[in-house]
Amino acid sequence: MPQHIGIVACSAEGAALCYRTVSMEGAQLLGAHNHPEVSLHGHSLADYMNFIRRGDWAGVAELMMSSAEKLARAGADFLICPDNTIHQAFDLVAHRSPRPWLHIAQEVACEAKRNHFKCMAVLGTRYLMEGPVYPEKLKAAGLQYRMPGPQQRERIDQIIMDELVMGQFLPRSRAYFTEVIRGLQDEGCDAVALACTEIPLIVDEESSPLPPLDSTRLLARAALRKAVSG
User: Fold this and answer.
1) Domain 105-215 has CATH 3.40.50.720
2) pLDDT single digits (tens) 1-35
3) Structural domain spans, the chain
4) Statement: the pTM of the whole predicted model exceeds 0.90
5) Contact 147, 133 (CB under 8 A)
6) Which of 118, 122, 179, 192 has an alpha carbon within 20 to 30 A of 110's alpha carbon?
7) What is the C-alpha separation between 31 and 12, in angstroms, rounded?
8) Reported CATH class of domain 5-103+217-229
């Protein structure tokens, strides 16, 4: 029997994309209409943002632990979190979690290595782009990276928090992402990490000047492989 996947949700759109990917792509491994058992728990995004805005990553960790404990009681064998930003609290959670976790940035770094990319552009919330989550994992994989400039980070964060997490995907915002990615391509990047779980809903291979690495779907596919093969 495949293992039971537990999803620690944060924002609704990202969690929904992760769940949908597990459900729809499970058939490729298990047969038509089939996928591993999945449970999902999520606290309010507002609860997370109250801690994030204060830089209280211990508070974020407690919310993640609360979800982890509920999912363990529901029978989950391992856990994933389709939210890049709150991975800044990952090390405060993983060592005391009732179940093991996969790390979203680790999966992106592994995919970049498999595709022989050398320098990653990284797009996400302001907290993600100014935090340690991707720099640590990309450096450990021997990869270089570039982040957008300060004004671009602010605008990207605004698009994510005011539009994408609310299910709004506007043409002008898609064009802005394309412009930012093209600028990072000019700085030497050969791929872009879509390191916010909602960005893949507005940026795809057609609109991106660089090959996009979709963190949400990469994590979901890694969870599928682990659930099926152990």
Assistant:
1) no
2) 899 999 999 999 999 999 999 999 998 888 898 89
3) 5-103+217-229, 105-215
4) yes
5) no
6) 179
7) 28
8) alpha beta
